[in-house]
Amino acid sequence: MKNVPDQLLQRNEAYAQHHEPLAPLPTLNTIVISCVDARIDPAHILGLAPGEAVVLRNAGGRVTDAVLQDIALLIAMASRAMQRPAQPEIVLIHHTDCGVERLRDAAVVQGLSNAAGIEAAHLHAIAIHDHAASLREDFERLETCALVPAGSRVTALRHDQRSGRAEIVFQEDLT
Question: What pLDDT score was predicted for residue 12?
C-alpha cells in the first residue's frame, strides 16, 4: 500500500496529463465561502469547473475577519487586473450536520477551547444554531465591511448533507 503523498502525486500525474493553464480571474466572477468539512466540496456540489470561482473554506463556512480580509484582497487584485472596480458574486454555503452546530453546547465549546487553544468567544461566534440566522449574520458581516463593494450579489445556500441538494435561503445585493 502506498503512502498518502505517493498516492496524491500519482493522481497529480494523471491530472497533469490533461492540464491546461487557466486565466487568473474566475470566469463566473464568483467567490464561494464554504465549510472545510471533507464531505462538502463546493466544486462538486455546485458543479464548478476549475477556474470558474474562488473558493474560501473555513470551519462552518462562516464570514470571519480572515475571510473578509481574503475577499478584500481578491477584490483589490481583480480590480487591478481588470483596471476597473470588481464586483463579484458571493455565494455562502452552510450545511446540515456541520461540526460547528455542536458548538451550541457550552461544555463542547470549553473542551475544544482548551484542547485547541482557541478562545471560547471565537467558537461561540462561529457556532451555527440556525442555518438561516447564521447565513443572515454572515451576510450582515459582508454588508458592513467597507472593503466589499455595494451592489455585489450574495446568494446564501443551505446544503443538505443527506440528500446532496442545496437550496437558496436568500439572495440579496449588498447596499
Answer: 97
H-helix or E-strand containing 65? helix 65-82
Residues 144-153: pLDDT tens digits?
A: 999 899 999 9
Residues 6 or more apart whose Cβ sits within 8 Å of residue 25 = 78, 81, 82
- Answer whether 89's CB lies under 8 Å from 65's CB: no
Q: Do the bridges between strand 89-95 and strand 53-58 make them parallel or antiparallel, or are there none, so unpaired?
A: unpaired
Fold of 23-101+128-173: Beta-carbonic Anhydrase; Chain A (3.40.1050)
Tell me the whole-structure pTM to 2 decimals.
0.94
Does position 8 have pLDDT exceeding 70, yes or no?
yes
